[in-house]
Amino acid sequence: MEFPIQEKTYVEIPFIKQLKGMGWDHIEGDIGVPYFSEWESFQDVLLVGRLKSALKRINPDNRGRPWTTKGRDVLQ
């Protein structure tokens, strides 16, 4: 009897390894408690805190400072 293909084994784990090899961070999650994985809720699509940090880091103004300010923050 053939066993069904395990998505975690053949898809998720190899994909995570590939992304980590490309320099991505992997956060091991908890399927029961969202804030253990930096989520406010499992309904969230983005890790907002990480997104804000990344936007400030990769989009400096012409003086090398973050261009986002309290009045111009794209993720208020």
What does this structure look like?
The protein is mostly helical. 34% of the residues lie in helices and 0% in strands. It has two helices and no strands. The chain has helices spanning 7-21, 48-58. It is flat.
Structural features:
76 residues; mainly alpha; 2 helices
Number of helices in the DSSP assignment:
2
The end-to-end distance, rounded to whole angstroms, is: 54 Å
| Helical fraction | 25-40%
The profile of the biggest β sheet is: none
- Give the helices and strands as they follow along the chain: HH
State the low-pLDDT regions, or none: none
On the 0-100 scale, what is the average pLDDT? Answer: 79
- What is the beta-strand fraction? under 5%
What general outline do the C-alpha atoms trace?
Answer: flat
Give the tally of β-strands. 0
CA gyration radius, whole angstroms: 18 Å
Derived from helix and strand composition plus strand pairing, the structural class reads: mainly alpha
Summary, kept brief:
With 76 residues, the chain is an all-alpha fold.
Topology (SSEs and partners):
Blueprint: H1 7-21, H2 48-58
